[in-house]
Amino acid sequence: MLIRPEKWYSALKQGTLVMVHATLHKFNWETRRFKVYQLNAHTIKILDGSTLEVETRKPTELPSTSPKMATCSDAAKAMSSIQLGKRPLDETI
């Protein structure tokens, strides 16, 4: 049974038994000494649906005291050390 994206929230609710065909990817960041694991689901088969009610979605509330947003001048300062040049026309890739 194919589940359309707009139905994912109600079909894949808490208590649903699924079988997932997926690949696991591991990324090592040596400079920071931590690992990130990513699970990519290729197919999800619902084996038994849940009888629980769908939880009501609540919009994410951002804190009122958010950190200062980066300004255009901050971005310009960060990019100021980047030097871009043109490749000569006769140079091959």
Explain this structure.
The chain has a domain at 1-52. By secondary structure, the protein is an alpha+beta fold. The model has no long low-confidence stretch (mean pLDDT 79). Strands 1-2 form a two-stranded antiparallel ribbon. It contains two helices and two strands, in the order H-E-E-H. Strand 1 and strand 2 (34-48) form a beta hairpin. The chain has helices spanning 8-11, 72-79, and strands at residues 17-29, 34-48. The chain is 13% helix and 30% strand.
Task: Note the topology.
Elements: H1 8-11, E1 17-29, E2 34-48, H2 72-79
Antiparallel strand pairs: 1-2
Which range best describes the helical content: under 10%, 10-25%, 25-40%, 40-55%, 55-70% or over 70%?
A: 10-25%
Radius of gyration from CA coordinates: 24 Å
| General shape | elongated
Question: Quick one: biggest sheet?
Answer: 2 strands, antiparallel
Strand order of the largest sheet: 1-2
Question: How many distinct helices?
Answer: 2
Q: Can you count the beta strands?
A: 2
Strand share of the residues? 25-35%
